[in-house]
Specification:
Largest sheet: 4 strands, parallel
Order of helices and strands: EHHEHHHHEHEHHHH
Radius of gyration: 17 Å
Strand order of the largest sheet: 2-1-3-4
CATH superfamily of one domain: 5'-nuclease
CATH architecture of one domain: 3-Layer(aba) Sandwich
Number of strands: 4
CATH topology of one domain: Rossmann fold
Number of helices: 11
Shape: globular
Strand content: 5-15%
Helix content: 55-70%
Structural class: alpha/beta
CATH class of one domain: Alpha Beta
C-alpha cells in the first residue's frame, strides 16, 4: 500500500520541501520547527531524501554518512506522514510535459506535490520546472524558503512565533542572544534575510 500525505493539521497547507532546502541544516531545522508548531505540514519523498543526502555529502564531505542517515530517520520519525510515493499517473503526467533532461530530472518533485495534493513546493532558483508547470492545469505555488516563511507569518503569526522560539531554544550554536540567532537566519546558507527582518520586529516575543 502506497504511503500518501494527509495533513496532520486540518487547517494548514501541505508543502513539499525540495532537496536544496533539506540539504541546508539550519534552514531545515527552522522550517521543521515551524511545522512542529503547526504552521504547515511538510512533504517529501524517498527520491528527495536521496537527492539532499547526496548534495550534503558533496558539499560537506566531513559529515559522516551515518550522521546523514540518522538525520533522515529522525525526520521521518518526527513527521511519519510526510513521506510520499508519487503515483504513476502523476509521474506520467509530469513527464509528458517535460521537454528537457533538466525538467525530467526534477519531475519527481512536482509528481510528489501532485500526489500529496500539496499547495506549495519550497525550493531554490534551480528548480527548473516553471515551463512544465505552465503547461499543467494545477495550482501549485513554487516559493523560496524565505517567501514561504513570510507567507506563514502572514497567515499564522502566533504559530510561527511559537516555532521560531522553539528553534532558537534548540540551538547550541551562537551566543544565545536574539541578535545572534537572527544573524544565523540571515546567513546565505540559511537564506532567510526577510524572515529575520520581520522577526527582529517581534524580538520582545522571542
Amino acid at each position: 500500500m502506497e504511503k500518501t500525505a494527509r495533513a496532520a493539521h486540518s487547517d494548514v497547507e501541505l508543502a513539499v520541501l525540495d532537496a536544496p532546502i533539506l540539504a541546508r541544516g539550519m534552514l531545515t531545522s527552522f522550517l521543521l520547527h515551524l511545522a512542529e508548531a503547526g504552521a504547515f505540514d511538510p512533504v517529501w519523498s524517498d527520491q528527495i531524501h536521496a537527492t539532499w543526502a547526496r548534495a550534503l555529502q558533496a558539499s560537506r564531505p566531513v559529515i559522516p554518512v551515518e550522521r546523514i542517515r540518522h538525520r533522515r530517520v529522525e525526520m521521518d520519525r518526527a513527521f511519519p506522514v510526510a513521506s510520499v510515493i508519487a503515483s504513476r499517473d502523476a509521474q506520467d503526467e509530469v513527464l509528458a510535459h517535460c521537454a528537457t533532461a533538466e525538467e525530467r530530472k526534477n519531475a519527481h518533485v512536482l509528481a510528489t506535490a501532485l500526489s500529496a495534493r500539496a499547495a506549495v513546493i519550497v525550493t531554490d532558483a534551480a528548480f527548473g520546472l516553471t515551463g512544465v508547470m505552465t503547461r499543467l492545469w494545477h495550482d501549485i505555488a513554487v516559493l523560496s524558503a524565505d517567501a514561504w516563511c513570510l507567507e506563514l507569518l502572514d497567515r499564522h503569526p502566533e504559530t510561527v512565533l511559537h516555532g521560531a522560539r522553539a528553534h532558537r531554544a534548540s540551538l547550541s550554536r551562537g551566543d544565545g542572544s536574539i541578535d545572534g540567532w537572527l544573524t544565523l537566519l540571515r546567513e546565505p546558507r540559511t537564506g532567510l534575510p526577510l524572515t529575520a527582518e520581520v522577526l527582529s520586529g517581534q524580538r520582545d516575543r522571542l
